[in-house]
């Protein structure tokens, strides 16, 4: 059975007190709605529709960064969740199969839970995701007759008996596409808020002879994010889950509570992560690599057996081959670092290709930017770059070549050659003593004049 996703992401989120649309606030360095889409991907959807409203262009741009095939529907007036889902009807024209409705501000519903909803759809026309709330508060209540879900009632419209029900509505729902839109067309707005409620389709389905049921999950999965406090809590939950996942997958975290992950962070088995490491988006660390303390990685790939840090920064485009060494206070950006190559101290390597087995001395800088354009540096295999070398790109250093410490290299260096690019040293006997005496005399005169 083909499936489609409708993700509702039209809300303004006024309680966030932000100009940024609510669903774009990050959890694990990804917009919160990306988490819901990631869980929905377990269904391998044929179509995905994101319904946008406030800040719709921004949300659409971020959605297309995730998947350029995502379809965008717009809800210009905020008339309720049933109205929001109806805006996706045109985008699903011609689609036949099941539709799953997700929420951009409910990021933690798991793949397993969504797959259980899909299984329940095999025997019911409509499936709703519910949860047993410790404090049901103002959640909508699921009214059941045995296993049959007969209706969902909003708290403000519920009787006292209905408010005593603890099985609450998460908002997620699945139904056949044709059935869903037939039911939505019958939803009215005769309620306390004057809105078109998506949950009303359950009672309509029951009255028209269709069956509905509820699948339950933990309350933690249905956590909604509406305030900055809830956002911080959600990120904490995400980080805790990622740390547990890493440990269970065979990664060593020396101080788990000090390591921070992104949604797409991948760590291989037997990788070792020391304290106070931050993984930005797009990081892959392969098996047996070691990331040492206080390092920051983003958009990079660290291969097997490599070491990074401490106090290192890998920026987007950094690619480390097996057994490479990036040491303390080294920054690498948009550069290929060869197998067994060492850049161990206080260096910047940007827009560069460094060959296998090369040693880059302390204080080396690839001077890659001329104020307008970026230029590339190429260093061959088994080369030796002396400490405090400035490699002024574009420049190529050959295989087994060497640069003298303190050199400014502006021209290519052939294979096996030694390049010396520094001014000739001249020593002036006793000049330092005379200069110090003169300076001290000037200082004394100034102090006396004060």
- Class derived from helix and strand content: alpha/beta
Count of alpha/pi helices: 9
CA-based gyration radius: 30 Å
Topology, number of strands = 35
Distance between the termini: 90 Å
Summarize the amount of helix as a percent range. 10-25%
Strand content: 25-35%
* Biggest sheet overview: 11 strands, parallel
Overall geometric form: elongated
What number is the mean pLDDT? 95
Which spans of ≥5 residues are poorly predicted at pLDDT below 50?
none
Question: Could you characterize what this model shows?
Answer:
With 450 residues, the chain is an alpha/beta fold. Helices cover 22% and strands 28% of the residues. The strands form six sheets. Strands 13, 15, 16, 18, 19, 21, 22, 24, 26, 29 and 32 form an eleven-stranded parallel sheet that branches. A ten-stranded parallel sheet has the order 12-14-17-20-23-25-27-30-33-35, with helices on one face. It starts with a strand and ends with a helix.
Blueprint of the fold:
Blueprint: E1 3-9, E2 26-27, E3 30-31, H1 32-40, E4 47-52, H2 56-66, E5 71-74, H3 81-86, E6 98-103, H4 111-121, E7 126-132, E8 141-145, E9 148-153, H5 160-163, E10 167-176, H6 177-184, H7 200-207, E11 212-217, H8 228-248, E12 252-253, E13 266-267, E14 272-273, E15 278-279, E16 284-285, E17 290-291, E18 296-297, E19 301-302, E20 307-308, E21 313-314, E22 319-320, E23 325-328, E24 331-337, E25 342-345, E26 348-354, E27 359-360, E28 365-367, E29 377-379, E30 384-385, E31 390-392, E32 395-397, E33 402-403, E34 408-409, E35 418-419, H9 431-449
Parallel strand pairs: 1-4, 1-6, 4-5, 7-11, 12-14, 13-16, 14-17, 15-18, 16-19, 17-20, 18-21, 19-22, 20-23, 21-24, 22-24, 23-25, 24-26, 25-27, 26-29, 27-30, 28-31, 29-32, 30-33, 31-34, 33-35
Antiparallel strand pairs: 2-3, 6-10, 7-10, 8-9
């Amino acid at each position: 059975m083909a499936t489609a996703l409708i993700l509702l992401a039209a809300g303004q989120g006024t309680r966030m007190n932000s100009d940024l649309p609510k669903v774009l606030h990050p959890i694990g360095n990804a917009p919160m709605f990306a988490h819901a889409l990631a869980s929905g991907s377990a269904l391998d959807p044929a179509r995905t529709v994101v319904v946008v409203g406030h800040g719709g262009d921004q949300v659409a741009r971020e959605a297309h960064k995730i998947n350029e095939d995502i379809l965008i529907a717009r809800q210009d007036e905020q008339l309720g969740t049933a109205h929001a889902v109806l805006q996706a009807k045109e985008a699903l024209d011609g689609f036949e199969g099941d539709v799953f409705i997700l929420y951009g501000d409910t990021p933690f519903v798991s793949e397993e839970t969504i797959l259980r909803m899909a299984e329940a759809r095999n025997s019911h026309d409509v499936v709703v995701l519910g949860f047993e709330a410790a404090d049901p508060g103002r959640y909508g209540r699921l009214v059941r007759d045995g296993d049959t879900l007969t209706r969902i009632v909003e708290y403000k419209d519920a009787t006292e008996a209905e408010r005593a029900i603890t099985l609450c509505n998460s908002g997620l729902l699945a139904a056949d596409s044709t059935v869903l839109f037939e039911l939505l067309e019958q939803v009215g707005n005769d309620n306390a808020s004057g809105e078109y409620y998506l949950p009303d389709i359950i009672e309509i389905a029951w009255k028209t002879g269709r069956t509905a049921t509820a699948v339950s999950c933990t309350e933690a999965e249905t956590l909604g994010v509406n305030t900055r406090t809830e956002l911080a809590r959600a990120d904490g939950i995400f980080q805790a889950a990622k740390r547990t996942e890493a440990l269970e997958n065979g990664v060593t975290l020396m101080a788990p509570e000090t390591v921070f992950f992104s949604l797409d962070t991948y760590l291989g088995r037997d990788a070792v992560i020391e304290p106070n490491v931050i993984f930005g988006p797009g990081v892959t660390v392969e098996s047996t690599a070691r990331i040492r303390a206080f390092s920051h990685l983003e958009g990079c790939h660290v291969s097997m057996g490599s070491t990074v840090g401490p106090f290192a920064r890998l920026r987007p485009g950094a690619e480390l081959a097996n057994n490479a060494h990036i040491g303390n206070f080294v920054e690498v950006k948009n550069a290929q670092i060869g197998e067994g190559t060492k850049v161990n101290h206080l260096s910047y390597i940007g827009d560069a290709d460094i060959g296998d087995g090369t040693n880059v001395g302390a204080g080396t800088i690839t001077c890659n930017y001329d104020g307008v354009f970026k230029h590339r540096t190429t260093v061959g295999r088994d080369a030796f770059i002396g400490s405090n070398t400035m490699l002024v790109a574009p420049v190529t250093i050959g295989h087994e070549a060497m640069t003298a410490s303190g050199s400014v290299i502006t021209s290519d260096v052939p294979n096996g050659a030694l390049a010396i690019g520094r001014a000739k040293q001249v020593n002036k006997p006793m000049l330092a003593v005379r200069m110090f005496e003169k300076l001290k005399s000037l200082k004394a005169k100034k102090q006396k004049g004060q």
